[in-house]
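Model: Ready when you are.
Researcher: Fold this.
Model:
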Amino acid sequence: MAVLGKIQSGLTHQYAKIRGGVTDTSEYTAGGVSRTVYWFRNDSKRMGDYSPLGTLLMNEQAKDDFSMNVVDYVFLHEVGHDQMGSIGRTLFWAIYLSSGLLLIAGIIALPSTLLKAVESAPSTVMLPVYIAVAVGISLGAVIPFTLVCWVDETLAELFAISKIGISQYRSVLKEVKEESEAGLLRKICIRIQYPPEALIFWVARKRGFGDT
């Protein structure tokens, strides 16, 4: 087990290079949960990351920009990605990567697909239909990609809520919104990858997590 732990740690350090590299490693505790955290520091909006290796990465910059309630929430959210279990995580990554690659390929191919649709349309009346079909084929992978992301993120949010309570969760969301600025492209990515707050609160209410 010690050898496996060293291998996991080494691979996590390699994975963390996409975030700028590991700056520190420490045990972090919040909501009665303790886990080893690999810290990185950069100016991106990414506050945490649950790696494919099952390890937690968190951005030290978050401790400078937000209250400890937010940092605790980020930690618990990332731990919450464990809720799928090993088999669930394997299926998640399989669907996530395959549909993500198909989505990227579809976006790249969209101009040529639209051109073929225009050329193939038998009349100007049918042109909108052909264009709609072309766009649907090119971006069809967004549906399974979004679904698997929403399931994963919802489970992570529910775990965090179960530990910090709905009231603190609302406070955290408000603080993050007030301090964060997102461009149009990031807003689109957030909408694809993360479920609406209304859905989270609805599921939380169904799960009996207090007044939502």
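Researcher: Now this one.
Model:
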Amino acid sequence: MVLVSVIVPIHNMQDYLFECLQSLSKQTLQNFEVILINDGSVDHSSDIINNFVSSDVRFHVYETTHVGQSRARKIGLDHSKGKYLAFLDSDDVVASQWLATLVDDLISSNADMSAVGFDLLFVKRNGKRKFVQMNTKGSFSIIEGKDVLKAWMSCDAIGGFLWNKMFKKELFCHIKFAHTDYMEDIFLINQIIVKVHILSYRAASLYHYR
């Protein structure tokens, strides 16, 4: 059985896609699948996708005709086989222990959702990289009951986005996806968070947001 499904919508991301998918291929966790939704790309994204799909059996691709990120994620969800779900934006990069940390924290805490910290990735003109940390390094907490909703409403650490989190797949039962790509993450999490009884959060910056 597949433990984790990672859903990655892609539209014209040739400049960043290889690094993104390479960071997934180097995960320390082995039992996962990658659901790539090629959402009508007209650049060289398709070539990059096909190279990963042909060389790594964990990678799978599904083609759409530019339906937008929200609907592309829904298509990825429909094809997913994992017990847990994670989402990755196709221009971002993750640390090698991103998935392992999320799933270990989720299982050990008996949580419905786990989250990790992130940083902002900037590439300077000289090619050097700068990472701006957006969380408190090293802290770990388990949030339960009514405190989960309080933490979400306060925007404290959790963040209003899908990509630094892992979810039990059943949280997505009867969930509606936005018909627009405007604030689509918040639209989803607003529905999911009311189902979450236990949330784990580790502040380590394992997601690099570009």
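Researcher: Key takeaway?
Model: The helical segments are 17-25, 45-55, 69-79, 98-108, 146-153, 184-192.
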